[in-house]
Amino acid sequence: MRHCINCCIHLLPDNAHKQVDCHRGPPHSHQVCPTCKGENKILFRVDSKQMNLLAVLEVRTEGNENWGGFLRLKKGKRCSLVFGLIIMTLVMASYILSGAHQELLISSPFHYGGFPSNPSLMDSENPSDMKEHHHQPSINNISYVKDYPSIKLIINSITARIEFTTRQLPDLQDLKRQELHMFSVIPNKFLPNSKSPCWYEEFSGRNTTDPYLTNSYVLYSKRFRSTFDALRKAFWGHLSHAHGKHFRLRCLPHFYIIGQPKCGTTDLYDRLRLHPEVKFSAIKEPHWWTRKRFGIVRLRDGLRDRYPVEDYLDLFDLAAHQIHQGLQASSTKDQSQINKIIIGEASASTMWDNNAWTFFYDNSTDGEPPFLTQDFIHAFQPDAKLIVMLRDPVERLYSDYLYFASSNKSADDFHEKVTEALQLFENCMLDYSLRACVYNNTLNNAMPVRLQVGLYAVYLLDWLTVFSKEQFLILRLEDHASNVKYTMHRVFQFLNLGPLSEKQEALMTKSPASNARRPEDRNLGPMWPVTQKILQDFYGPFNARLAQVLADEAFAWRTP
């Protein structure tokens, strides 16, 4: 923003190299100030940079006037001019050094007070970040504050079009037609004496065959190769033999941690896997249901070969080996002990990510996906247990931005990206339903921040169309941060896990939080208060609906 003082003094805080008049004319054009009426007055431009503490004043004459004209001025005029310049400089310096930017008529590039005073503060994905921040910005960016009314109109437009409708469910035959191979591999019934859904299938390979030779997780990622080396070593010792044939135990998870990203799922996973009765997949987040089964590694890189369901099942082989031992145990006591094992999976994309549907399911109605991830999980595991960890979606979005943004991260950049995402979301809502916009792959890829991930109510309501509420355990990161022990006990009870020894429980509950914010991100400080207010306005109706569904006002995240 630029303001003209006496039509001759121009303040250009961030774009001093652009020669624009106070009426925002095009660069490098010759304008005439209406008050000066074309006289050869002196123009002053203030050129500031992010880390400078003092403005650099560059004095130029309008048009082709040179310093000769200035020197020919009468001595009295020169003195008055210099005196005025000194006064102006002192006033600006006092504002800058005092941090009183809101009293200036320009948006200042100096952001004092926006850095953390406590270097131990961590990302809210881990519970320690839930403690009250002791660093708050002392100022608002005045230009963003002035933008608030126009952004509020966008949010009002979105809110007026919010309608939580019930989706139409596909029938089982439609699901089978979409995933013929998956339904040919996973049986209708599982072993009755295993808590996890397991079954035996014939293995036709020889004892020199590498069972993981064609596994896509190995082929496409070097970091998984050591994991599969361990699986190879254990594989041949855990086959069952009957009638000259080899059989391997296959298993699916008993429970899923389905979301959301940057809500503490990693911390929950790291603590829960310390329980001796819980075994997770060999890879923490396989993302098979949402991405890999469609051949997606990174959507912007296009589609690869689809990962078959066998590659996903391979990830549970270590747990299956232990369950197999229990099933083959000679004594009832050993069987009882081993068969307490349950398998879990913790892909934080499972709840919300259905971006691939547009590539494979083209018989949609009004832009809404005809099939969702939960439809297929429910088809095989109608009794699955589902754990969800949520947090204030405003804070979730900022944490998500800091984690995934690669460069130029700042409160200013975040604000601009939020504004752009809201405009894109509104444009979609003008023509399509809420569900169509939430699951719109093109929109989700276009938005510079993942605004849609925080629309928890939309996703949960869609999951509740196929699973009952009793099959969910829905937690808040804020509660987990304040009382880890209580949260973990709720999880144990939900999964019917046995009690821990005092030493085991201390190890689980007192270990440091996982997935801390990177040190370089901690120094960026919090988002601008005006950005926070904008996001609270946007997410408010969705949070209210979530609190209503769960009958718990804590999920409204209302500010006190």
Automatic annotation (TrEMBL):
The keyword Transferase applies. It catalyses: chondroitin 4'-sulfate + n 3'-phosphoadenylyl sulfate = chondroitin 4',6'-bissulfate + n adenosine 3',5'-bisphosphate + n H(+); dermatan 4'-sulfate + n 3'-phosphoadenylyl sulfate = dermatan 4',6'-bissulfate + n adenosine 3',5'-bisphosphate + n H(+). Residues 253-507 form the Sulfotransferase domain. Keywords: Disulfide bond, Glycoprotein, Golgi apparatus, Membrane, Signal-anchor, Transferase, Transmembrane, Transmembrane helix. GO terms for molecular function: N-acetylgalactosamine 4-sulfate 6-O-sulfotransferase activity. This is Sulfotransferase. InterPro entries: CS_Sulfotransferase, P-loop_NTPase, Sulfotransferase_dom.
